[in-house]
Amino acid sequence: MAKVKKAPRPRAEPPKGFRDYFGAEVTERAEMLGRITEVYRRYGFEALESSAVETVEALGKFLPDVDRPNEGVFAWQEADEDGAGDWLALRYDLTAPLARVYAQHRNDLPTPYRRFAMGPVWRNEKPGPGRFRQFYQCDADTVGAPSVAADAEICAMLADVLEDVGIRRGDYLIRVNNRKVLNGVLEAMGLEDDAQKDAVLRTIDKFDKVGKAGVRELLGAGRKDQSGAFIDGVGLMPEQAEPVVAFLTSKGTDSAATLANLRAAVGASDTGAAGVDELSEIADLLASQGYGPERIVIDPSVVRGLGYYTGPVFEAELTFEITDEKGRPRQFGSVAGGGRYDDLVKRFTGQAVPATGVSIGVDRLLAALHATGRVGGQAEGPVVVTVMERARMAEYQAMVAELRRAGIRAEVYLGNPKNFGNQLKYADRRGSPAAVIAGSEEFERGVVQIKDLILGARIAENATLEEWKERPSQVEVPRAELVARVREIVASSDREGS
Amino acid sequence: MAKVKKAPRPRAEPPKGFRDYFGAEVTERAEMLGRITEVYRRYGFEALESSAVETVEALGKFLPDVDRPNEGVFAWQEADEDGAGDWLALRYDLTAPLARVYAQHRNDLPTPYRRFAMGPVWRNEKPGPGRFRQFYQCDADTVGAPSVAADAEICAMLADVLEDVGIRRGDYLIRVNNRKVLNGVLEAMGLEDDAQKDAVLRTIDKFDKVGKAGVRELLGAGRKDQSGAFIDGVGLMPEQAEPVVAFLTSKGTDSAATLANLRAAVGASDTGAAGVDELSEIADLLASQGYGPERIVIDPSVVRGLGYYTGPVFEAELTFEITDEKGRPRQFGSVAGGGRYDDLVKRFTGQAVPATGVSIGVDRLLAALHATGRVGGQAEGPVVVTVMERARMAEYQAMVAELRRAGIRAEVYLGNPKNFGNQLKYADRRGSPAAVIAGSEEFERGVVQIKDLILGARIAENATLEEWKERPSQVEVPRAELVARVREIVASSDREGS
């Protein structure tokens, strides 16, 4: 009999590109998503939580024409009775599942169908710093509403979301553009060849990076990039490139000026005129609800996603400055984007159904709230009731029960109580605002000691003697006053922390 | 050139055994989990959200010794540069990831580590009615606390959770047992053979179903089941089976009586005595915090999981009656269970680390809240502002903006407004409490019509003429009073619905 080899110990780590979230990372995100949910619901949107797993067939793009269709997605084949079953995959976004759900239930769902969805998605990509293979998305879409009133509504809702999670008015700007205007510009240029149109679209996508002069070069003969490499151009004549440049730089001092510039840029194109009309209608609808250009603005320089969307396109940017990793100030940048895409369920049903929606970058928005100090920083830990005498455990438990009934996070130290220093180190590691201490002497005298740990830490650092005298970091109070005194300490440390 | 075959349309359905959750199904669960989070945090527990994907190696049990290790889990192999990479799998519970996370971060995490986790898990099992391959779990565990004070704390927390989500005191009972007591009973019986011990454990697991007489038969010669099939017995002598029966039926009129019965059942076994002491200590700790036997009770008839756990075992049952699918009354039954398991991370580190925890059946608890009417039933839909004149869209949008600013869910009808009946059908399908109607005549006179849809539906069914006169289902109000009047209607329909 072969000797059974003892299995080596497994590595205690998640797969490459995956990570865990601890404590405040989880609860802060949940709170933010809860606030977003409230806004979405106020706008009449309904929650949808689709399954994390879809058939590869329903997801599309990743058809099983190769042995393993895991290009970009995590996929596997079901083991059927006969052996080979369906290929399944983890969803890579929340839009593909929406298409499947709407196609499946279109006769039972209200039309228009406003839905929001929040949850993890998975990408089978090479992980990198800050680039994970599982991350959150948070989407809201309106399906079956062809009118731009639906697009305007999404923009207004996005503004409300940003303000309700804690971004101040003035610290964000939602910029709106329209793919139809760009199509009009391409018509005005007389471009007929699809390959050439695509090349122009790709060039426009680089406007953010290379600017006006760069776009001119790339539409013409070509351009040398920073590394010295030469990028071939589209090969248009300088005059021919002008409508594109005019389009990208048509933002005026107000909506009326911008719209006039755009009308000029699209020339005689009907598509272009329709696009400008749509932008004009969006601006009017938003103004009537009180969303002026200080919050939502028509801005033809928004190009991200213009290739993908079919009508209005929008992007939310945070305009306040943060310090980048090299210590230089820069704008925080984009936290959400979306637009209109008009063939959501065609793959399933053969019918084109219009849809428009927005996707919020959950991690980016949470990082922004941290950067502005709107989340984080508070003393979040529980009050720790230390254990001086094992035999008194029931009495310590009664203390935490009282504290909890008063709404205060509290726990008894449940490790080995022998080394008292370890108990205080534990409280420190938990970020506890206070520790409660009671030994036999305290029990006899009917009192407890309360150690103010936040104040204690501050005093250890930099408090003046006056502060120390005025509010010593450890006080003795009658047992009956435990809850009242702890509440005071927790309240004051919350004030200082926030 | 070969003709490209057009791909058939994909089926619009989720994979077998998966489902989607809509609207209130999502938000009600989220609210319940939010309330549970509050209780967990009040007890000092910290959130942990581990990755949904783990290496098969870290999950254990499912080692890649066969071609595809997807027995019970959804698994796939990473495509490395060299071809074959790690086997990855979706987590099948929240305990295996806790073990991996604690082993990985044990030097940085506080000890004891109290953590809670909520989220979907996946099982690659044959789906059936009401049996899905993705479902929610909601766990709380304390790692690194050997004392039964940790177990008592989990029981108290479970009671608080049930009451805070809306189960009334008296409608639930948490029953506590202890594996060590059972081990003592097995010792007292003189059982040495592990196979025989396992057979006794399996028999005990059936106590719920077969009762005292059934257990006696199954421990002895065997038993004919309802279908007439004969189940082989363990083959013990009748006297030898008595300690097990005594153990299972040792619940007395109060804790003291139960504990005395248990002491008799374990005879001279030290392990058994230690187990009884632990139960006694748990009862004392809970009593000192005000959790009496009307909420948490020592009950040796709790056998579910006794084979898996190593110390205290607990189960929460809802004691109110519901009507089963055949119209017969029955107790709602179990909604949560847990216990102590003392080798959580040994696979990773070689060291035994004690742990105790509870898992709440999310779907079961939510169903219970529905059964008691604590969730569901309210008018949840948005107020729908109908569109009589397309050109007035900005004015309709201004109305919903006002309603939303007052905290009222509201939306403009964004479908094709041509057929007004469709707009009211849409409002009906959304469960709207009210529809707002304004055409050119109303705009000229500065008024709006408000249709009370909940009242309208009631009147259509069964209202008296007096009710109709007193509160007609459609009223005309000045435009300036829109918000105030809609608020009244929404408030009254909430009252009636809840």
UniProtKB/TrEMBL annotation, chains A, B:
Residues 17-382 form the Aminoacyl-transfer RNA synthetases class-II family profile domain. It holds the Pfam family HGTP_anticodon. L-histidine binds at residues 93-95, 123, 137, 141, 304, 308-309. One of its GO terms (molecular function) is ATP binding. It comes from the Bacteria. GO terms for cellular component: cytoplasm. It catalyses: tRNA(His) + L-histidine + ATP = L-histidyl-tRNA(His) + AMP + diphosphate + H(+). It is found in: Cytoplasm. This is Histidine--tRNA ligase.
